[in-house]
Design brief:
heterodimer; A: alpha+beta; Rossmann fold; five-stranded antiparallel β-sheet; 20 strands; B: MetI-like fold; two-stranded antiparallel ribbon; globular
Amino acid sequence: MSNARLILRNLVKVFPARGGGGVLRAVDDVSLEIASGEFVTLLGPSGCGKTTTLRLIAGFELPSGGEILLDGGNVTNLPPNKRDMALVFQNYALFPHMSVADNVAYGLQTRGLPKAEIRRKVSDMLTSIGLHGLEERRPNQLSGGQQQRVALARCLVMEPRILLFDEPLSNLDAKLRVQMRAEIHGLQRRLGITSVYVTHDQIEAMALSDRIIVMNAGRIEQVGTPQEIYHLPRTRFVADFIGRANFLPATLLESSGETADVDILGQRMNVANSFQHGRGAALTAMIRPETIDLADDPSLPQVTVTQAMYLGSETEYVVNFGDHQLVVVDTSPRIGRFYAEGRQVGMALDPSSVHLLGAEA
Amino acid sequence: MQNVRARPSVGAQFRRILQDPILAVALVGSVIFVGLTIILPLLAMIGESVSTEGAVKFRDYLGSPVYQTIISNTLVMGVVVGAVGTLVGFLFAFVQVKLDVPFKRFMHVMALLPVISPPFAVATATIVLFGRSGMISRGIFGVRYDIYGLDGLTLALALSLFTVAYLNLKGMMEALDPALDEASANLGAGKLRTFFRVTLPMLIPGIASSFLLIFVESIADLGNPLVLGGNYEVLATRIYVSVIGLYDTTAAAVLSVILLVPSLTVFMVQRYWVSRASVVSVTGKPAGRPDTIKFAPVRWGLFGVVMFLCLLILLIYGTIFHGAFVNVPGVRNDFTLSHFDFVLNGIGAEAIQDTTLLSIVATPLAGLIGMVVAFLVVRKEFLGRQALDFGVMLGIAVPGTIIGIGYVLSFNGPITATLPILGEITLIPKLTGGQGLLGGALAIIIVYVIRSTPAALRTGAAALSQIDPAIEEASISLGADNARTFRRITLPLIRPAFLAGLIFAFARSMTTISAVVFLTTPQTKIMTQGILNEVENGRYGNAFAYCVILIGIVMVAIGIMYALVGSRTGAERRIEGGGQ
C-alpha cells in the first residue's frame, strides 16, 4: 500500500464516436499515483484525453474501466458531490445570480456548517485572496482576474482533499495569466493542497508543476519533473510538444557506458546515451534551438540563414545545413549581432545538450 | 481553448441518473406523466378509429366527396393562414428590428395582444365589424359582405396566430450578426441585394418553421371555424359536430386520425427545421447595432402597412370592449351593463370561478413539469431522451379536439386491472363526465397542464442551453446534489423562462376551448364554453362581456405572477444577454 493520496489505476474512458458505430478511446489505460501535497499537471494537445481524465477524477464522467482511489478508498463510482474534491472551471462557472460572498459560502452551506462559522471562513478566505470589500458584488461586476479569484476562493474554502483545475487561466489576457500563475503557485505551495491541473500551455505546466504528465491520444506519453520533460523527452512527440526541437539523424559510432560517440551532420561528438544499440545504429538527436550558437567563425561548419526574426529579447533563425533545416534561437542578442537572411554563418552544437532518441521514436 | 467534449455514453449517464433517487423520480415521473396523459388517450382514439365500425367509416369518408371537400378545405385553410400569418409576423418583426420608425413599442404590444385573447373574440368581432350587418362593411361602405368562409377565417386566424411568427423571426433577426450585412456592403452589394442574398436566406429556416407552426395551429383551431366558417367546413368543426351533435365518437375518432396525419407530419417537419435553424442563427455575438433602412419608400411603406394592421387589431379589440357595454353591438349602440349582469350574476359566475381555479391549479404544475423535463432533456443523456421531449410536445402538436376525444374514450370509465390475490382493483378512476373524479375537474386540469407544458418546456430548454453546464457542475463539485443544484442554481437562472412559461400556461388554460369542450360537466363549467353558447345563440354582447372579464383575469394574473416570480436581477439580464 503506497502512501499516495490519489491513485488512478488503468483508467479507460470510451465514448461512442461521432457519426458512426465506432468508439473513441478518450482515455486509454492511464495509471498514475499522486502524492499528498503534490502539484501535478496533465499536459497535452486538444483531444489528448487530459480534460476527460480530470472529469473522471472529479466524477463528472464514469470510467469504462479501471479505478480511482482517494486516500486508499475506492471512489470510482462515487457521485461528484461526495468526493471531497473541488474543481476550478475554465470559464470560472461562478453562480451569476449570487454575490461573491454567496458564491464562496455555497459549498459550506451545502455542508450544513453553522452560519457564523461560514461567515468567518468566507471573510477570511476573501481577505487572504485579495477580494476583501467585494463581498456584495455580482460576478458580472468583476474583472476577469477577480472572477478567477472567486472561483479559486470558492474551492479553497472547502479545504478539499484534491483541488482540480481545468485550464483555469486560458480566458485571461497574457499579462494577467502570468500574474495569476504566480499566485496559484504561491497559494498551492503555502497551503500544500494536492492539485491536479489541466492545461495545453507548456510554460504554465512547467512553471507550476512538481510533475508533468504529458498525454497524447488518451495515453500517458511521459511522466517527469519539468526539467526531465524538457531536457530528456522520451519520445519525439514530447520533445516536439514541449518547447521547440530540432531532430537530426545520428549514427552510433562507439558506445561506452553512459556516453557514446555519434555522427551528427558529419561531426563526431560524445553525448549522453542510454541505448544499448550496437555500432552503426541509426538514432535521432534532439537539439533545443537555444543550445545552438551561431558565430562568424570560419572553423565551424557553415550554414545559410534563410529566415531571421528579431523579437527583442531573442532572435530566431532558420538555417540550412545541406538538406537539413534547423531552428536556432539566440537568447541574448547583443547590439549589432544579427545575421541577415542569405548570410553564411558558423554553427556550433553543444554535445552536452544533445539528447538521443530511438530512431523510431 | 476548449477541448472537444465528446458525448457521454448513454448507458453510463442512465446509471448515474438512477443513482440519484430524486433524479430517478423526476425521470420516471415524466415518463409516466406523458404515457398516461398523452400517449394513452391518443392510442385509445386511434384504437377506436380502427375498430370494425371505424374501418368502415374510414372507407366511407375517404371515398365521399363531402369529406374530401372538408379535408381539402382544412389543408387549404392551413396553407393560406400559415402564409398570411407568417407574412404578417415577418413584417412586424422586420419593422421592429430593421426600421427606425416611431410607435415601435405600440406595435410590439399589438403583436403580443392575440396571446391573451379568448377564442371566438376575434371571430365575433370580425363579424360585428365586417359581416352582413357589419359596422364597417355595411355601416361605412354600405355592402352586405359575406365574411363567412375562407376570407373571414384567414383574417381572424392570421391575426390570432401571427404572434408566434413575429417572436420567432424577431429573435432571429436580432441574432443575425450585423457584420454579415457590413461584409456584404463592403463587398459592393446594395441594401436590396444584401437583403435577398444574405438576410433572407438566413431567415428561411425561421420562416419555414413559423409557417409550419401556424399551419398546425390553424387546422387544429375550433373556435374560429365554428363562428366564421359558414359553409366552409373543416375537420375540426366536423369532429365537434360528430361528438356534440351526433354523439358519434367513432366518427369523431376516424376524423381525428385523418386530421392527425397532417398535424403530426407538419409538426415533425417543423422540428427538423428548427434543428437546422439553430445552426444558422448562432452566428456568434452580434457586434454593433444593426444598420436601419433609410430608404424612405421602403421605410414608410412598411411602417404604413404594419401600422394599418395594428389599427385593425386595435379596432377588433376595441370592438370587443365596446360590444360588451352596448345593447346589440353594431346595431343598438346604447350603453348597458346588462351583459355583465348576465355573466356575473347568472350562470357565468360559476364558470368564471371554475375556470380561474382550475387554471390556477394547472399553471404551476405545467411550469414546473416543463422546467423539469427541460432540465432532463437538455442536461442529461438517457435512452429515450428525444422520445420524452417529443411526447411532451405532442400535448400541443395534437389538435385539442383530438385530445378531448382521447380523454372521453380513455377515462369515461375507471381503468381497472385484475390481480391474482387482490382481485379487481381500480388503477385510474373515472375522470371525465359528471360522475368523474372531482366532477370532471381533474380531467380538465390535466388537459390544461398537457396543453401548456410544451411551451414551458421550449422556453425552459432554450434558457438552459444558454447556461454553461459548468455552472451546475460547479455546484455539484462543491458538494450539492442534483436536487439542491436544480433548486439553488438552475431554477433561479431560468426564472425568466419559468415566468414566461407560467404566464403562457395561465393564458392558455383560461382561453382554451377545443381540448376541454367535450370535458365540461354540469358540475364543472368553463368560461370559453360559456362564450361559445352565447355566440351560437347570437348574444354577442354577452360573449364580449365574458371576453372582457377573461382578458381582465389574465392581465391581473400576469401582474401577480410578475410580482411573485418576477423582478429581473442583474444576473438574469446577464443570462438573457448570453452571459457565460
